[in-house]
């Protein structure tokens, strides 16, 4: 059994200027923890993989494709491969998100 704790993983600043912690990666999946401080923005971008976002703490605005929605803790958001997605933290609290990137299953 392997056990990992998010905050025992090394933090880095990603290409969007947001604190990130990549704490799991395999051939088929990657999990990244993001911490968006008040005012932080992840500009809309697309990934070649299916992505799920799980809001762990706080509130934020997620944009998937042409749709934008306010979301809060305990919410799961799906973003299909090659669809633009982005985040904004317009609140005065920390927004923590678990990002799960998945390879499509081969047929």
UniProtKB/TrEMBL annotation:
Residues 34-100 form the Cupin type-2 domain. Pfam families: Cupin_2 (PF07883). It comes from the Bacteria. PANTHER family: SLR8022 PROTEIN. This is Cupin type-2 domain-containing protein. It comes from Labilibaculum filiforme.
